[in-house]
């Protein structure tokens, strides 16, 4: 999948890590922000295949789009990008519905209920896009080619309604050093997104942030 154009919507740490990961693997990357000038330093050091733009420009640029914004801003970011521009494209949704509230005994709080997911809200905002949940159950430091003890490969849980889109995300995950665990249609995000809660507990309780999940078969 090298040489494919990838847009990364988001100016935070997750967006930077994934943008750099795609560049590392030979993709052309546009990183998007509401204020593209804020990404000038990244662009100047990221190499010739890196560019910046606003959300609308990124939605047009990439054949593969990565949504890497704060969960509470995810639906608005999709609307700013433009549902029509995203139609037919694979959108990797990395977000989690983390509320603006302090963790309780290490457990982050969510603004969604148990029978809904943020991915489903995003899919509803861009109904013709092919939204695939990925990179949501691990910290950004481990998203690209992580090294675990014993050479064990971590499992990345994904879901979405379009099989071809999920196949393209599987290719990316393989390049990025992950085993893909496909959990099916969009509703499975209701189970995948809470894995972020579980992943964060050792971090908040023990300051341990170097773990990942493995699906044993």
Can you tell me about this structure?
With 217 residues, this protein is α/β, with parallel strands linked by helices. The chain is 35% helix and 17% strand. It has helices spanning 13-24, 40-46, 55-61, 74-81, 83-86, 118-125, 163-175, 189-192, 195-206, and strands at 5-9, 28-32, 50-53, 64-67, 90-93, 130-133, 155-160, 179-182. An eight-stranded mixed β-sheet has the order 3-2-1-4-5-6-7-8, sandwiched between helices. α1 links the parallel β1 (5-9) and β2. α3 (55-61) packs across α4 (74-81) and α4 packs parallel to α6. The chain starts with a strand and ends in an 11-residue tail after the last helix.
List keywords for this structure.
217 residues; alpha/beta; eight-stranded mixed beta sheet; 9 helices; globular
